[in-house]
Amino acid sequence: MKSPVWIEYWNPAEQHGHLLLIKGENEDIPMRALLVDIEEYADELAGMFLQCNEDRHGGRGHTHSTDVVRLAYEAAVFQLLTTDYEAEWSEIERRERIYKKWGGQVPGMVLQPSIDDPKQWEALITDKEGNPSLYKVKKGILDDIMKPPSEYGARENKYGSGWTLPKK
Length: 168
Fold this sequence. Notes:
This protein is α+β, with helices and mostly antiparallel strands. Helices cover 33% and strands 18% of the residues.
């Protein structure tokens, strides 16, 4: 297994959670060893919750309830038995690639007026790798919810494509 292995828990009612890295990306631990020590890893994650207090995390820590400690233990066992870490790690790397490609959060879809005809709308839709494709939107389908930019006072951008809104 080339991917890292970790367990984590964050109770939604609390301000933070904890994560325990069991194996780094370049380390090698057989799955059998992980499963033999499953209770030890779960104990270690639960212990992180037990040790947490107001003095930790730069003063942002807090004491976790015993219910949260128990839930963290159970979550750790469940994750180690059911998580496909190769798939999880591949998904994290994919999201990082796309984030770098776009320089931020990737839009699923962007509606924009066509450069040639501002009354015709286009949809820019990204695929799984963040590659954009431009599709024409059926004429008239957005008429009742979106007006052409010129009706909002925008003018065609004199420096290139797009629209410029007047300063207020």
